[in-house]
Amino acid sequence: MIETKNFQGPPNNISPPITAGAWSFGPVGGYFLTESLRLNPNGKVTGYDHPNERSWRIENYRLLILAEDGTITWRTVETFKDKDGLINVVLENPVSTQTRFILKQNTHQLAPLETPTTKPTDSAAQSPLSGISDAEFLFPSNLEVTPVRINKVLLVGSYLTALYHEQLHTLHPETDFDYIPYNFVSALPDTPPSPPSDYSFQYLQIPLCSVLSDRVIWGFRFNENGFARTILEDAYSVIDTMLASAMIYNEQHGMLTFVSNFIVPQISTASSLNERGGSNDLITLTQKLNDYLREKITTYKNSYLLNVDTITSTIGKRYILDDTIYFHSHGAVACQDWDDFGSIARNEPIPPLKTVYPVKKEAFLDAIFRQMVTAYRTIRQIDQVKAVVFSLDNTLWRGQLSENYRLGYQPWPRTDGWPLGLWGAIHSLRARGILVAICSKDDYDYVKSRWDDVVEPKLLSLDDFSSVKINRLPKTQNLAEICQEFNIEPKNMLFVDANPVEHAAVVSALPGIRVIGGNPYLTRRILLWSAETQIVHRVGKSGKQAQIIHEQARTEDKRSSMDGSEFLTPLNCEVSFINIKSTEQAEFERTLELTNESNQFNTSGQHWSFENIADFLKSGGKILTFMAKDNFTDYGLVGALYLKGTEIVQYVMTRHLPETGVEEFAIAEAVQFLRYIHQGETNITATIKETAHNTPCRDVYIRSGFQEAPSQNGIRRFILDSKDTPKFSLHIKKA
């Protein structure tokens, strides 16, 4: 059913039947711009992408085609059938009535559309070259579990950002977008269009042409000695100044900010073949500017670079960038200007741009927004993967070890291609602080004896894994034990296995666990490119966690052979404390990371954003963090107590620390710290909000000598009387 002004009825009652199929569209007497334009019953124009033709309606029995802003671009002048019996609709522009376009019925519309009698098979329905979308390729969604809504985005930038603002409103109506033009060095308004707290993040795009200036258009000047160097040094200064102005909301309100880098021109601008890639080449200059911009962004808190140049390279700069038409530093998406659609007389009409330069604008915009969303997911640590567990056969290598790698039977399956790629991916995960393990239903001694035969070249060893479960037990049991060893929940574990039967069994036994591995050509990309396996900052923990797991195992082995005091006293456990007063402190990033990854030892279950913690500190809150070490290892920063007034608001601690009494020792230090601030004996309070996961910390205040008070609104309350001192283990020393 179609319902417009002065018309209501089914599509086949419209004369001409404009919703029946695709139409050719273009200037009268010129080339058709498209042969696939469709006027959909929902009022949208599809099959042809241009801001001047976005929707349609019938008013007073005339066809109207409307632009993105709702203004009328075209209206019907006349309708007729040509000599072939095809319907032609002549359209004029209301402002420039001499500019006329035509909608021409395609030949195939003369015959009624046939409905297939059989459903096409999957192989027939999908083009072998279709694959996955560019956005999904670059930013995989395979590990996403929790949906995230981006409520409002502040866009700050030039022509490219204006395109985002114009198009993303339509593509993502669930998100509100505010836009502040920023083309040159200038001050932003004192306040953004909406309250800063309303924005999920700010997206900043500094225009390359403003940074390089118009001087680069006079290409012959690059032959002058020192010209390129002057351009580069001036560009650095412009970046400094424009960032200082554009980051005002970040600095004043701690607003999460993403900064787009510059799109590198797609071909050399050097004056000679010999100079390509040299200091006079705009490609080289832009790459240096991107390096400088990245370094500069690291000096701001809660701000991160988004590599738009990578997006254009992956999709193909020939399908996006306008430097084949415009000057090299313009750095925008190619489009055909309105004046080139026939309004200006030419001896030879200009053909549609897409006939020579097809533009993948929708794919580009889709990837741009997807990049924003995945970066946001990483920063908020949504669905974070803390451990990846690998099976062996048909997962870490091709085929089965016992069947395909028998001694004396050659050739064995090749190891190049995806097996080598997966071995490298494992080391990349370790570098990010993600734990890796093996879970395989096989004989351990046999696998160990044959490992070097199969893993060739020897880029991976069993010692690279924090846990190795190779036995005849069910994989579900082994995975549950790995969760206990790593002190993580199944929802933070990813299992890689080629067997779909195992997938089903594991998911059923361990709700929340994620599984991949059916298609080995997808595995490496999912592991390394997904937002859920990225880390925000590489801090002391990254890459060290596996060592801590190993040392923890050694500690537990020694504990099992000794009684408590005999074990703890010679352990020489030392704890040092740092008071976090500002987000500028070096330990802040690790504190934020620890807080947001702690679920089991987390007295409130709360996770914090950078902005929330910044406000907490500004309003008088304090964060007392602590580091621990013993004879076995240096564990780094392992815990944090959030303090306000005389209350311990929240207490978080890693679960990778041996049970040595450190948690009570830290509470005792926090009590002493608060009583020192408040000058004397003071009642100290604390709270615990029980969650489904924080069982390990529910008695920590009782163990420290606090008394439990009546609960309020489901929150457990504890108090340490001003006359009381907290309990703690005497074998621990303060460093």
UniProtKB/TrEMBL annotation:
<protein>
    <recommendedName>
        <fullName>Phosphatase</fullName>
    </recommendedName>
</protein>
<dbReference type="GO" id="GO:0016788">
    <property type="term" value="F:hydrolase activity, acting on ester bonds"/>
</dbReference>
<dbReference type="InterPro" id="IPR036412">
    <property type="entry name" value="HAD-like_sf"/>
</dbReference>
<dbReference type="InterPro" id="IPR036514">
    <property type="entry name" value="SGNH_hydro_sf"/>
</dbReference>
<dbReference type="InterPro" id="IPR023214">
    <property type="entry name" value="HAD_sf"/>
</dbReference>
<dbReference type="InterPro" id="IPR010033">
    <property type="entry name" value="HAD_SF_ppase_IIIC"/>
</dbReference>
